[in-house]
Design a protein that fits this description.
The protein is an alpha+beta fold. It has ten helices and 13 strands. It has helices spanning 25-32, 97-112, 143-150, 156-175, 233-236, 243-259, 272-278, 284-287, 293-302, 314-324, and strands spanning 8-11, 14-17, 54-55, 58-66, 71-77, 83-89, 121-127, 130-136, 141-142, 178-179, 188-190, 198-200, 207-208. Helix 4 (156-175) packs antiparallel against helix 10 (314-324) and helix 9 (293-302) runs antiparallel to helix 10.
Length: 325
């Protein structure tokens, strides 16, 4: 169950009191989009307009995304009119040092990953009490929004084409020594409505696996990510994750593209963490028997729970998926 500030948890004779520092996500959405940043450019017009709010040389347009620590606007760079995605975090909204460190880490990781299938970071900094970074704007939105709009699974050929591009970006990150730790349809962006190119984004949870367990960034016993796309080891051994964990999440994403289902069943009312820890993965052809056997074999291997049987890196997964074609 969710806990809130002031709750107590009793374990035998020990009582824990929960303290939540910083504002909740709902407050973040209200404050970051508040009068300090308004008025915004209308949804159908990203051009600079009189009275539009400006941050560090950018004119803010409509909100295109919200998260636990930031809000993303479509914005216009005043120097050349370029449309960007501008992510903002205000210290009075997320005041603890750990959250600021995650925000700074997303900047550092994204800045070091220059690849056609990774969202480009243009600039970062602060103005007054607003921290920001400007990223490449992907007009096609997220893969999650596309799947929601379609209301049906993607064709196998299209699913594989998009997955191969995402895996190419992921393989590059792995080669650079980073794991993403939160691969899911929301974090795969499309550059246009034709779905010609996909790019990975949101490296806020990324971590150098070459120094896993040594950074002090992650407290023992904690986990992060998105449950339906989370491998089991992300709960049981979060500090020691390796690229194979991203493989599971990308495999789960491809599985979802092909079926609109998840690798595990999450029955209503059942604890999702218990499902991840104890429920088996359902073979993808049990969801859709019409899927090609060679493709199903690759997907099933990507989401197998045993690390030794899974593809070790995004590059291995990509090469196997190519071969399945």
């Amino acid at each position: 169950m969710d806990v809130k500030d002031g709750d107590t948890i009793r374990v035998g004779a020990t009582v824990f009191t929960v303290r939540v520092e910083g504002a909740p996500a709902a407050a973040l959405s209200a404050e970051v989009g508040s009068s300090a940043l308004l008025p915004m450019v209308p949804e159908n017009d990203a051009r600079p307009t009189a009275g539009a709010s400006r941050v560090a040389g950018y004119v803010l347009g409509p909100v295109v995304g919200r998260g636990g620590m930031g809000v993303v606007h479509r914005a216009t760079r005043l120097s050349d009119g370029l449309t960007v995605a501008l992510k903002l975090m205000r210290p009075e909204v997320v005041v603890d040092a750990h959250s600021r460190e995650i925000f700074d880490r997303e900047i550092a990781v994204t800045e070091s990953l220059r690849h056609p299938n990774v969202v480009t970071l243009y600039a970062h900094g602060s103005e007054g009490d607003v921290f920001y970074f400007a990223m490449e704007y992907c007009a096609g939105g997220s893969l999650a929004s596309v799947l929601l709009g379609r209301g049906r699974p993607m064709e196998a050929a299209l699913s594989v084409r998009l997955a191969l591009q995402a895996l190419t970006g992921l393989a590059f990150a792995h080669e650079k020594g980073f794991i993403h730790r939160d691969i899911k349809p929301e974090n795969i962006l499309l550059v246009d409505d034709e779905m010609s190119v996909v790019k990975l984004t949101d490296f806020g949870l990324a971590k150098s696996f070459q120094q896993a367990g040594l950074s002090g960034m992650t407290a023992t016993g904690t986990a992060a990510g998105t449950l339906q796309f989370m491998p089991r080891e992300q709960l049981t051994n979060f500090r020691m994750l390796r690229p194979a964990s991203d493989v599971w999440s990308m495999g789960a994403t491809l599985y979802h593209m092909l079926t609109l289902r998840y690798p595990r069943d999450f029955p209503p009312g059942k604890d999702a963490l218990e499902v991840i820890l104890s429920s088996p993965v359902v073979p993808v052809r049990e969801r859709d028997p019409s899927l090609p056997a060679a493709l199903a074999e690759v997907v099933d291997r990507a989401v197998v729970d045993h690390l030794s049987r899974r593809y070790a890196t995004g590059g291995e997964f990509r090469d196997a998926l190519k071969s399945a074609l």
